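Quick log. Single chain, no ligands specified.
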Amino acid sequence: MASIFIASLTYTVPIARVDAVLAEHLAWLDAGHKAGHFIAWGPREPRDGGLIFVKAASRDEAERLLATDPFMLEGLADLAITQWTPRLAFPGLEAFNG
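-> predicted structure:
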């Protein structure tokens, strides 16, 4: 059964450098979603980073997936990963169930 991991990215560079890679990052997220890995994502407010909810078989798999993020490849953000076990998902949020 897959587990859920919450990836918290914190930008380490000026937002203009992040914006220069944003289109690549969004395409990467879309591809990961289509492959069944990323179930939700979005920027934090204030815009100092973002969160990605990752469905993966293991922490190692989640780390490998996240290492291919253009933001990580360009050294634009720090990454913290938290494994999460949802106990309840409201109707419409079934993807969060491992």
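The longest helix spans residues 15-34.
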